[in-house]
Design a protein that fits this description.
The chain is about 45% helix and about 15% strand. By secondary structure, the chain is an alpha/beta fold. It has a single domain, classed as NAD(P)-binding Rossmann-like Domain (Rossmann fold). Strand 4, helix 4 and strand 5 form a beta-alpha-beta unit. Helix 1 runs parallel beside helix 2, helix 1 crosses helix 8 and helix 3 packs parallel to helix 4. Belongs to the short-chain dehydrogenases/reductases (SDR) family.
């Protein structure tokens, strides 16, 4: 059976662990060649690269080796525009073109609103909005220059709609991502480029280690999730793989919540 993304090249930002790693592996399973991006975790990126290579399949495993390069790793800070532009251009130089951009990299800072520093505010905005804006711009320029269509998928959050006290800058960034996606769907549609958001809820990743080890907080959260479990990176990756495929060719400007029902059920304890 033909795989959905055979012959496609995808870049997944922030893919050294967690949701980004899960997305990179799933896209490889669907046949894509994948550019893995990291900022400060080269070991994690190497682990992702190995998993992407294994997931890509269609190699000469009977002879004990694989001669099809399925993945490539690039270090870049998505909060720095020069790094963003280099990431896109280096990805294109390596694989020849890009078809899919997954803007997954993101950060959050915890503080009451009245204690948020300019430095922390800018750190969140630089990665979560500015980096996405200019990575997408570079991708679109490439698609226009090569007369190609393409798919852009942003990893947003339930907090593009759901308030999250003490994470105001993060919520603002995700709300901005929601409007960026809507606006670009109108601008990019005539070019054959689709753009959508995937908005995870509570996903079991390394960033949530403290929560996972605190039964009281974990149980309180689970009471707000109708499906009564945390999501897995694969739950998010499945939606990304669909949106990256031709099956989603008539979908653009939309947010897809992958949250087990959290958004419509959440209430403060």
């Amino acid at each position: 059976m033909a795989r959905k993304l055979e012959g496609k090249v995808a870049l997944v930002t922030g893919s050294s662990q967690g949701i980004g790693q899960g997305i990179a592996i799933r896209l490889a399973e669907e046949g894509a060649k994948v550019v893995i991006n990291y900022r400060s975790n080269p070991q994690g990126a190497e682990a992702t690269l190995e998993k992407v290579q294994a997931a890509g399949g269609q190699c000469h495993m009977a002879e004990g080796f694989c001669n099809i390069e399925r993945g490539y790793s690039i270090g870049a800070d998505l909060g720095l525009i020069d790094d963003v532009c280099r990431l896109i251009s280096q990805s294109i130089d390596h694989f020849g073109h890009l078809d899919i951009l997954v803007n997954n990299a993101g950060i959050e800072k915890h503080a009451p609103f009245w204690e948020v520093t300019e430095r922390d505010y800018e750190a969140v905005m630089n990665v979560n909005i500015k980096g996405v804006f200019f990575a997408t711009q570079s991708m679109v320029k490439h698609l226009i220059a090569t007369k190609r269509t393409g798919k852009i998928i942003n990893i947003s959050s339930v907090h593009e709609d759901l308030p999250f006290p003490n994470f105001t800058a993060y919520c603002v960034s995700k709300g901005g991502l929601k409007m960026l996606t809507r606006n670009l769907s109108v601008e990019l549609g005539p070019l054959g480029i689709t753009i959508n958001n995937v908005a995870p809820g509570a996903i079991e990743t390394p960033i949530n280690t403290k929560l996972l080890n605190d039964p009281t907080k974990l149980n309180a959260l689970l009471q707000n999730i109708p499906l009564n479990r945390l999501g897995q990176p694969g739950d998010v990756a499945s939606m990304v793989a669909f949106l990256a495929s031709d099956e989603a060719s008539y979908i653009t400007g939309t947010t897809f919540f992958v949250d087990g029902g959290l958004l419509w059920s959440y209430h403060e304890q």
